[in-house]
Amino acid sequence: IDIASGSTVDWAYDDLKIPFANTIELPPKSASPGFVLPPSEAPGVCHETYVGMKAFLAAIKQELQSSMSG
């Protein structure tokens, strides 16, 4: 994911000093059909989102544990 510009993630980092923020982007990346996801692709997108969030939360947990121990 590219660095966000003017998004809520920027606001969370810069203004609120929240150390962890995430943006979920939906496919497709092209203009057609935009963010209208065909129903047949929903299970795959759900799985990818789940795996990504699981990794994001694991990284946060690891960061917090290491900052508490050292």
UniProtKB/TrEMBL annotation:
Belongs to the peptidase M14 family. GO terms for molecular function: metallocarboxypeptidase activity; zinc ion binding. This is Peptidase M14 domain-containing protein. The active site is at 25 (proton donor/acceptor). PROSITE patterns: PEPTIDASE_M14 (PS52035). InterPro entries: Peptidase_M14. Residues 1-60 form the Peptidase M14 domain. Transmembrane segments: none annotated. It comes from Rotaria magnacalcarata. One of its GO terms (biological process) is proteolysis.
